[in-house]
Design a protein that fits this description.
Shape: globular
Order of helices and strands: EHEHEHEHEHEHEEEHEH
CATH topology of the largest domain: Rossmann fold
Bound molecules: NADP nicotinamide-adenine-dinucleotide phosphate
Largest sheet: 6 strands, parallel
Oligomer: single chain
Helix content: 25-40%
Distance between the termini: 30 Å
Number of strands: 10
Structural class: alpha/beta
Number of helices: 8
Strand order of the largest sheet: 2-1-3-4-5-10
Length: 230
């Protein structure tokens, strides 16, 4: 059996990071080196070389800093943090020249399949109007969700970069994450939807991504690569 992958989890007291840390702690494929909160963030940046991979579910500014530290130390970086500006995304992506950087707005396999199917449907129904509705819990900071933005991108990509999908965001109760893509023609309506039942869908996906990224050359990867859907 291979050596367990040494990981640090950034945002380990948060809603998602806490599930990543909890699942890693009982999985023999991982050695949980560090649970990183705000207080440990500077120490991680100095000592990141001890890790086999870093998993981040924090906030845009910290995501950029952790990515840079991983790039310098050539440690694979896996991030689910959303709400990054274009500049911040480019800053995180810059680390991929030196190490594997795995960024996904949604680590669930179901949403990854939804993105794939959305591209196929948009390509084959070019005249249908596309629209997205996403629903999340009240504490979510960004809107539209990173997944909704990626879904709109999948529609545009399926139409050769031509086409938009207006998005509505609802922030209610404790909803983990629902996404619905409607493609409406004059006489029928196709709906593709996904509902996350537990944050463990994201946590498990991020752990699989860390194992996968740890074997990869420097580059920028996402769940479509991991699932062979690119
Ligand atoms: N890709 C996916 O599958 C996926 C799934 C779920 C969520 N997300 C995204 O992941 C991010 C976190 O979501 P969440 O719901 O888990 O949020 P959360 O419950 O607010 O957790 C965020 C965690 O990050 C910590 N943090 C914030 N700034 C930090 C910093 N500068 N240094 C170190 N730690 C810092 C917070 O610490 P404090 O408590 O001290 O502030 C908190 O523990 C969001 O961007 C969300 O959209 C992605």
């Amino acid at each position: 059996m291979p050596q367990p992958l040494k990981i640090a989890v950034c945002g380990a007291s948060g809603r998602t990071g806490s599930r990543v840390a909890a699942l890693a702690a009982v999985d023999p494929r991982f050695h949980l080196l560090a649970r990183v909160g705000r207080a440990q963030a500077s120490a991680l940046e100095d000592e990141v070389g001890a890790c086999g991979a870093v998993i981040d579910f924090t906030a845009p500014e910290s995501c950029v800093r952790f990515a840079a530290a991983c790039g310098r130390a050539k440690v694979p970086f896996v991030s689910g943090t959303t709400g990054l500006t274009q500049v911040q995304r480019a800053q995180v992506a810059a680390a991929s020249r030196k190490t594997a950087v795995f960024m996904a707005p949604n680590f669930s396999r179901g949403v990854t399949m939804l993105l794939h199917l959305a591209g196929v449907a948009a390509r084959h129904l070019p005249e249908y109007d596309a629209a997205i509705v996403e629903t999340h819990h009240k504490a979510k900071k960004d809107a539209p969700s990173g997944t909704a933005l990626r879904l709109a991108q999948a529609v545009a990509d399926g139409r050769g970069g031509d086409g938009s999908a207006p998005t509505s965001s609802l922030r209610i109760g404790g909803v983990v994450g629902d996404h619905r893509l409607a493609l409406a023609g004059p006489f029928d309506l196709l709906t593709l939807s996904h509902s996350a039942q537990s944050r463990d869908a994201f946590a498990l996906g991020a752990l699989e991504a860390a194992l996968w990224a740890a074997r990869k050359r420097p580059g920028l990867y996402d769940m479509l690569d991991l699932m062979g859907l690119r």
